[in-house]
Amino acid sequence: MQRLDEEFQIRFLESLLRIYSPTGSEGEISEYLKEKFNELGYNKVRVDKAGNVIGELGDGENAVLFCGHMDTVPGELKVGLENGKLYGRGAVDAKSSLAAMIMAPISKEDEIPCKVIVAAVTDEEGDGEGIKELVRSGVRGDCNIFGEPSGLRNITVGYRGKMAFTVKVRSRGGHSGAPWKFENAIECCFDFLNSVREELKTMVISQGHFYTVTASPNTIRGGHARNVTPEFCEMYVDVRVPPGISTRKIIELVELVREQYAVSSSSEIDLEFSNDCVEPYETDRTSLSLRALMRAILEVTGGPVRLVKKTGTGDMNVFATSTGAHAVSYGPGNPLLSHTELEFVEIDEYLSSIKVLSNTIKQFSRILKMYS
């Protein structure tokens, strides 16, 4: 098993950034990671049906799982190292986290005190088929860390859930010179959305954006002529859900609004709900995952440690709510740079995150010994 210096760790991340791997096109990077896992001394290296690459180091009954995603959003960016920053698509979200996880178990001379599983998954920026396949195959640890940008001293302990629906409105169109005579299908869509939003306001369970339910109209199409009142409109609405509220509850609310709206409208309103709902998740503050990572950050950086709740949704949700296992997210980089045209990670932060993750393995084993 290789022991790697910092120059190698930097070159490894740069090599990942140079492989353009938007969601749905992860084949090249998947094959590359498989080869690298073998070169680096990982055992039981395998590629599953979703294209996930999984490798193991160490042994024992208890395991640490490091899970990061290899795909990115579309949009190729120039890769380069400048003034201590490494630029490129995925530098923040989330190839630096994945690279740090792969490097962490082999970054020190010490023997690995437990089993470490590293999983590089596909489709995180899509429908999550990578993490779903990982869950189906039974891969999990007693300490589960997911690779997402949080910043060196921050740990993400919660994400909102996600569901979506499409509302389709059909009305009787007519001359746009007399709009008062007809129901405008586009306006009906927005009226329906606003009715849903009013109902969602009653579901706020605490202060702050994290604990609110939001409904964002992300795509819309309707009408067919410039001088005809629209007789058709279709709107896709993305809904984010905080812990304490299930996606099923949101579906029931939207259906109830549709029933109420239909009473006062002459338009025909249909709803289609997405079948890939993701439940919200917030980790238990006593979990091994959180305790081990917090101790590692404190020992490596001196602290302080900040616990973060993100308003988006991640693979951690699917894993934790499907398996019942606790998990947290961690990784280098400023989350505000995710999906932007200016993605970069500070080299020092990337290298320090490797030390933190390596130390997490040690802290996990220490905690187990305390209670054995």
Model description:
There is one protein chain. This protein has 372 residues and is of the alpha/beta class. It folds into 2 domains: 6-159 and 280-370, Zn peptidases (Aminopeptidase); 161-273, Alpha-Beta Plaits (2-Layer Sandwich). It contains 9 helices and 16 strands.
Give the class-level CATH name of the largest domain.
Answer: Alpha Beta
First-residue to last-residue Cα separation:
29 Å
Find the structural class using helix and strand composition. Answer: alpha/beta
Note the total helix count. Answer: 9
Helix and strand topology:
Layout (H helix, E strand, L loop, with lengths): L5 H12 L9 H13 L3 E5 L5 E5 L5 E7 L10 E3 L2 E3 L7 H9 L11 E7 L7 H8 L6 E5 L6 E6 L1 E10 L14 H16 L13 E9 L9 E10 L5 H18 L3 E6 L7 E2 L5 H14 L4 E5 L4 H9 L4 E3 L13 E3 H24 L2
Parallel strand pairs: 3-6, 3-7, 7-15, 8-14
Antiparallel strand pairs: 1-2, 2-6, 4-5, 5-16, 8-13, 9-11, 9-12, 10-11
Helix pairs in contact: 1-3, 3-9, 4-8, 5-6, 7-9
